[in-house]
Amino acid sequence: MTDRRPARLGRLGGLRRVVPRSFQARLALGFIAVTALTLLLVSGVVVNRLDEYFRDQAQVDLAARARTVRDVVVGTVNRAAGIAPVVDEAGNLNPAVEEAMSTLGLQIIADRIAQADVAVRIGVAVVEPNGVTVIPSPQGTFEARLSAEPAAGLRRESTTVTVTDVVPQGPWAYGLEITLANPYTLRQTTIATVTGLLVAIAFIALGLSVVVAAILADRFATPLRRLTEAARRLAEGDLSSRVPPPYAGAGSAEIAELARQFNAMAARLEESVAIIRRDRDRSRDFLADVSHELRTPIAALRTFVELLQGPAGADPDARAEFLESARQQLERLDWLAQNLLELSKLESGLLELDLRPDDLRACVESAVEQAEAAARRRGIELRLQLPEDPLRIRHDPQRIGQVVANLVGNALKFTPRGGAVDVRLAPHREGALIEVRDTGVGIDAAELPRIFERFYRGSRANEARSSGSGLGLAIVKSIVDMHGGRIGVESRLGVGSTFRVWLPRDPRTPGGREVLATPDAAAVPAAAPVKEAPRSSPATEAPPTSSTASPVSPTPASTDARRPAPSRSTSRPERSIVAKTSSPDPRG
């Protein structure tokens, strides 16, 4: 047993070496093998059935010849015997019949009529249950061998047909047996012709099967090769590798679907890696910026402490000034920490909304009131327009107030002295619209698609815009997304920017997102796909609004198409705050 197993394994190994390894070659070889086997089986069955058919036909034809010979022999024998019996009671053949049969020309009958060896036996007929048996007379056997040359297509065949009959003759009767053997027939020629034709057809079909198999195998294998090549390139780090579209739809539906799913997977992988790399780069830049932001107040605090430990600590005025400056630096650190914590909670989903069906005017007005002091210090006119009737939608008052505060703070930061910031709240077709318009420096069109991305702070060429952490608008976008809303912006350099926030009537309804796509403003959405707003959330403190700890992220924004300025007519009086004094914002 142990000796046979290595031998068997060796034979299998040799067979594996002979069989091709590629899928295309195996597929083509399998198709050709199946076609060849089918042709072989069909040809064998057809030839076998035709052989049986022609053999039966030859038997029928030979029997007909035998009956013809019988008729000739019976006529000759009856004429020769006349009224005398052909075979007497002793079983002897009538001499006249013997002479007639000798001169009949049996050879001619064998060559022209029977086309076979002919044997005629005349004698006494014995009727038995299974047929008639002829006991030939001593002189009653006559034979003739076939000597004629065969006609075209005829071949001698080893077969025999015997016709036995009882021939009545007046009051007598005699037995007659006609045997035809080794006749000329068309069976062998016909079978050979049909076999040759089948072989020719088989070779033609096999050749066509080779061509078809090669085409089909290439059609199936080419997408797989392209898929394998794309997967290999993807594994080597080429994330842009895809199965070309002409090959993605080729082959079977399953292979085409596999190629499409691979392309979709590769696209998602490339997108995910790009996002990871982009976030990594932004995080690295952000950490560097945060480190710089932290170094400035920490260095200032260290300096204040060192000065207070020196002679300046004995001077009450200097000590008060240093302590006030230290307080401002601590507020700056607190502001940065609050923004980082807020964005982390929003993006991680740890923060839930406290949705209430309250009047939206209250939180918008409260946020604007908190920015009045900053507007006065900067010498900027801050105006608020509210609808006369209550505007009740389901929202989180604190978070929407934070959105308005961040947008207003951004507008104040980038609006020069003497400019104006307008805040407008208006009912929307199925929700509410909050608009913050300023007459500030505006935003470069190249920055508009990215201003809502976290860590993005704008072009370095704009010192005012590149200051800060780049978190304020990311926080605004996250809050608006959680409400099922959308934020958009339009801006022109040197003219100003207009931020618009659309909020649905109820963020919990499935159609909350759809109400935002209205012709009210041809805005290009700056937000990611809307997420269903979570339920209630714990309240957090609003960021400070002092000149040193404004809650506003320093990054302005724009992605909406421009539209006409909104109407300022409202029955609610417009409030205007004009600054009398000015104090620079430490973050500006």
Helix and strand sequence: HHHHEEEEEEHHHHEHHEEHEEHHEEE
Q: What portion of the residues fall into strands of 2 or more residues?
A: 15-25%
**Based on DSSP secondary structure assignment, what is the total number of beta strands?**
14
CATH superfamily of the domain at 352-577: Histidine kinase-like ATPase, C-terminal domain
Strand order of the largest sheet: 12-13-11-10-8-14
> What is the gyration radius calculated from CA atoms?
55 Å
CATH hierarchy: architecture of the domain at 352-577: 2-Layer Sandwich
Uncertain segments are 512-588
> How many individual helices?
13
**How much helix is in the residues?**
40-55%
Principal-axis shape equals rod-shaped
Largest sheet: 6 strands, mixed
Estimate the mean pLDDT confidence. 76
Level-1 CATH class name of the domain at 352-577: Alpha Beta
Question: What is the fold-level CATH name, i.e. the topology of the domain at 352-577?
Answer: Heat Shock Protein 90
3D architecture notes:
This protein has helices spanning 4-18, 23-81, 95-102, 106-114, 187-235, 245-248, 253-309, 316-348, 360-370, 372-378, 397-413, 463-466, 472-482; strands at 117-128, 131-144, 155-156, 160-169, 172-181, 184-185, 356-359, 381-385, 392-395, 420-427, 431-438, 486-492, 496-504, 575-577. It has a six-stranded mixed β-sheet with strand order 12-13-11-10-8-14. Among the domains are: 25-190, no CATH class; 352-577, 2-Layer Sandwich (Heat Shock Protein 90). The radius of gyration is 55 Å and the shape is rod-shaped. It is 48% helix and 17% strand. It is an alpha+beta fold. It starts with a helix and ends in an 11-residue tail after the last strand. Helix 2 (23-81) packs across helix 3 and helix 2 (23-81) packs antiparallel against helix 5 (187-235). It is built from 13 helices and 14 strands. 33% of the residues are buried.
